[in-house]
Design brief:
This protein is an alpha/beta fold. The protein has one domain: Class I glutamine amidotransferase (GATase) domain (Rossmann fold, 3-Layer(aba) Sandwich), CATH 3.40.50.880. Helices cover 27% and strands 28% of the residues. The chain is globular and about 50 Å long.
Length: 268
């Protein structure tokens, strides 16, 4: 895990504070300014690209980032553009807005823009995403599911993500939309993968020492399935409920950290 997290990531659970103290967005802005280049806001996930892009441009400029560029990759033709790829490759910060994460992967997958994104991340750019923009960065992402019922076969739908972050699956708007069941089910599919559920106005900042630090006003839920002793997931049919024994769950507020290698909470 330590070797697989080369770049800098800040993942936000959605509905971040945009008008008050804006602690999470301020933290991201400070990381971008350290890079000494421009911020690129990617609006691919939303169908309201112009409106959302304008909103974030204003926020980040107020937070002291002079150069904010907006890029709406809403087709695979645009994702194959060498000009757009260069914009990503040379950015000091890249910010994915919320919306639908499948829009991002279906536009980006296997294109020049995708290659440029990975190159920028591995080169030290700070990548952030909110809501769908947070879920999309992992190798496996949650794209839907019935999270408001007991966990069963329809509790979660998974797809391939962008692959910047391996061995985890991320869900957002976590407590606010009752998504514990679908994250439990995602971990049950492959217990070595760590499940991370991020509440609204809450973020995790991945650090070089293979850990993440929690920011914001609510909590992050970590589901560790490595010590699961029994699951009936391979036998489920229809609406039969999931059995999952000896799963470990942490609820972590701001100021706490989590070591991804040791799978331990770091108390401040």
């Amino acid at each position: 895990m330590a070797e697989k997290n080369r770049g800098s990531l800040l993942l936000i659970g959605g509905a971040e504070d945009k008008e008050g103290e804006r602690k999470i967005l301020k933290r991201f802005a400070s990381l971008v300014k350290e890079r000494g280049s421009y911020l690129l806001v990617l609006t691919s996930a939303t169908s309201r690209a112009e409106e959302v892009g304008r909103e974030y441009r204003g926020i980040f400029q107020e937070l002291g980032i002079d150069r904010v560029k907006i890029l709406d990759i809403d087709s695979r033709t645009k994702a194959m553009s060498s000009t757009n790829a260069t914009l990503l490759e040379e950015a000091g910060g890249i910010f994915f807005t919320g919306g639908d994460q499948l829009r991002i992967t279906s536009f980006f997958g296997g294109t020049r823009v995708y290659d440029a994104l990975k190159k920028a991340y591995e080169g030290g750019a700070v990548v952030a995403g909110t809501s769908a923009g947070a879920s999309v960065v992992s190798e496996i992402m949650i794209v839907g599911g019935e999270g408001d019922d007991s966990p069963h076969l329809n509790s979660v739908r998974l797809a391939a993500g962008l692959g910047l972050l391996e061995e985890v699956v991320v869900d957002q708007h976590f407590a606010q939309r009752g998504r514990m069941n679908r994250l439990l089910f995602a971990v049950a599919y492959n217990p070595h993968i760590l499940g991370i559920g991020i509440d609204e106005d809450t973020a995790i900042e991945f650090q070089a020492e293979a850990s993440f630090l929690v920011h914001g006003s609510r909590t992050v839920t970590v589901i560790d399935g490595r010590e699961i002793t029994y699951s009936n997931i391979s036998e489920l049919e229809g609406n039969q409920a999931l059995a999952l024994l000896n799963v470990k769950i942490h609820v972590i507020p701001a100021g706490y950290a989590y070591n991804l290698v040791k799978r331990e909470v770091i108390i401040p």
